[in-house]
């Protein structure tokens, strides 16, 4: 994997976002709550209470860009690789470029589940629609 220019940035689009179930895994490694951004790709509902993205340039994935603490970049990426299933092959860490022009790390779907496309590319909007019924 080719590292983005320092400071290392991470694009999160699902359960790693502030207030979601895996935020606590990312929170200790970032300098703030990030900034809204988007990346070219497609977002899917896995049916397992978390999303999956494919960064292939065909649509848009909404998320946030986080600056990783410089002294914790290696530790953060190793920890998140484990949390996100990159070690097991469920996801893979890739470099992509956001709409704001940031080169970022992001976790891309690795395969094995039946996926349902998420219209609009926003996990939070999708969850809100599901909650409304």
UniProtKB/TrEMBL annotation:
Pfam families: GGACT
SUPFAM superfamilies assigned to the protein according to its UniProt record, in alphabetical order: Gamma-glutamyl cyclotransferase-like (SSF110857)
Record domain Gamma-glutamylcyclotransferase AIG2-like: where: 10-124
InterPro entries: AIG2-like_dom, GGCT-like, GGCT-like_sf
UniProt-listed CDD domains: GGCT_like
Protein name: Unannotated protein
Species for this entry: freshwater metagenome
Lineage: unclassified sequences, metagenomes, ecological metagenomes
